[in-house]
Amino acid sequence: MKKINLFFVFVLFFALLSACKKDDEKEPTAKENLVGKTWVITEVDSDISSTFGTLPPELTNDFNPTEGLEGQTIIFNENGTFLVGEDDNQQQGNWTLSENGQTLTFSGLAEGDLTEFVDAQTLANLQTFEVTTLNNSKLAIQNNTNVALPEEITEQITGFPIPITLIVKLNITFDKQ
User: Fold this and answer.
1) What pTM, to 2 d.p., does this model score?
2) How far are the Cα atoms of 45, 72, 92, 167, 177 from residue 89, in angstroms, in the given order?
């Protein structure tokens, strides 16, 4: 009889132990959601305004910083590098994601004419985005940066070398491919 009672105690103990044990699947971290996947840009929105008012169309030439981005792909590599675009027109650089997964920063993303008239801090600000959505299938980032125009450009706009700041707002949404 003692053997049977002892057997039932063990069975009851293991039954309780297994009932209490959760079969938790650990949620992936923000970084795990981001890396090793191909993301395609599905939506882009930009707005450029000025502290001076509306910029003349002949100066802006309908400039759109997000033109041509929709449909582009980006791959975030585990080692902190990224690849944007297709094989024949690919750009690479580095990325970092904050510990809390709410800030995504690029380096090497903005090149060319932009680097000629913005300082290093402004360039870093333009490449730092707030992460509004990051899960296994969607990434949405936004940026709102003030860009001080150089005096030679403000003089073209106003006729005087007065300070003008552009407010550049970018919203970019990616879907996992």
Assistant:
1) 0.76
2) 22, 10, 10, 29, 19
